[in-house]
Amino acid sequence: MRAIRFFCLLCLLTYAGTGSAWAAGESNARSMGMGGAYTGVARNLDALDWNPANLGLSGGRSVVVGLPGMGFAFGNNVLSTGVYERYNGKYLTEKDKSDILYRIQDGWRFDTSFRCDVFGLSVGRIGVKHWVEFASDFSLTQAPFEMLFRGTEAGKTISLDDLGAELALLDVTALSYAYPIPLSLVASETERFGVTELAVGATVKYIVGGAYAKLETPEGRLVFDEYVMHGNGEAWVETAGVTWNLGSDKEDEDPDFHAGKMGGGFALDLGAAAVLNNNLTVSVGLLNLIGGVTWDTDCERAVFSFQADSLNVVAVAEDTTDGDALYASSDTSYSIGSFESNLPAVLNVGAACRLNIEENGLLGLHPSPWLVKDVVVAMDWRQGLSNGLGVSTTPRIALGIENKTLRGIIPLRYGVALGGSKDIVQTVGCGLVLGSFRWDTAWENRGHWPFVSSKGFSWATRFQDSLNALEKQFLTCCEKRGDGCAEGVGFPLLAFLPHCLNFKEFKEFKDCLRLPAGHF
Hints:
This protein is of the alpha+beta class. It has two domains: 2-466, Porin (Beta Barrel); 473-513, no CATH class. The chain is built from twelve helices and 22 strands. It has helices at 2-16, 29-33, 47-50, 81-87, 94-103, 143-150, 187-193, 313-318, 357-360, 468-481, 493-500, 503-513, and strands at residues 63-66, 69-76, 108-123, 126-140, 157-159, 164-180, 195-224, 229-240, 242-243, 256-257, 263-276, 280-295, 299-311, 327-335, 339-342, 346-356, 374-384, 396-405, 410-419, 425-434, 437-446, 456-466. The strands form two sheets. It has a 20-stranded antiparallel β-sheet that branches. A two-stranded antiparallel ribbon has the order 9-10. A hairpin with a 2-residue loop joins strand 3 and strand 4 (126-140). It starts with a helix and ends in a 7-residue tail after the last helix. The relative contact order is 0.16. Mean pLDDT is 79; it is low at 1-23, 483-504 and 513-520.
């Protein structure tokens, strides 16, 4: 019974871990609303998650304060609400069983995600952000379900060695810097392609590991003869921050979970971005080019194994030992030294184009700016360079659009993505922009609309405050005064004030802009 209880603890651990936002964008409601087509759109703090080089492009040189935001997701690759309603409580025919097994032919994977952005600040070409994320994947093979639906056959072997799971709780602080490349250095190429801006950037992430677990099944099989079944298997899980207490004489001994720093590491992102013809942004970001966490505190390995010989229906029916006499099993846990987990590298390639409908019209029409002001159209290609938490080597293509209605006060968003670990997703989102303050929210549906085909969902919300509007007013005020302050165009507002204004002038400046008391 302790062997069964241990296996249940493993499943509980792996499934409870399904709760994070490992890949970029889960806590960014604007990017989620555009289906993840955001590498070319990201500016300011958003650039830290997608491509640090975007900090060096225009539109990203304001002072932006990132207020707390969050996002979570849950999903799988097999079961949708429609499939559940179709088969729940129904007598399964052979056709029904074949359909279900066909859906699980590549395995049944579960994932959920949660990420909380605690704080962020971008000032010009520099950005810093702090967030907490928790990620997990859990996978099952088709074999157990085939045995459940089809029973056993003489000479058949069922493999049990593809069960896997991984989870991690991380606390991350990222620091980014972007460098705008002078076009004079590459004049011939920039003129050829119409490049009007060019930048490169890097992000260094310091990672504090809070908890980690990885389940593997190096061997496991069940072999069916004509009258009996025999088999063997082994599973182990490496953890940091968990004491399993296996081997104890107490049947009700539960694992102990520890709080604190269980490991640490670093990661590096690199990127390049360009603006063509002052309108089209092309952006390439390589995330986690180098990255990993070394787990060195409270590290343990728990091992479970079983061996069964000549097991049949009669033996099961006559057993009075709760299964202990049917098979031999063992479970144990012991401390181990430090071990490492790698962060999966991801390549983001994106393009985004802004259409100024208010000035240029759309298809010969000039709709009211209350309906359409600016439209952003974006496309992304995301390629995982290795499989890992929230990352797949299957390419993912995303398309997104953002329409700023009510003169930009309420942006509306829609996106669709194909491939990756989520197959097909469709997203909707909206926001509210009131001066320097903005709020965004988004919903992602895994599968086709309507929700009867949903295999999961994601939701995100966030808040930001920007001084961009004040910067523009400040420059206008400086130009009117004619004191040369406007030479600082392109630098943040907070960098202007110490050089251009003394206390008296600053008070006059506040009066000029009609700022409320206590704004700064």
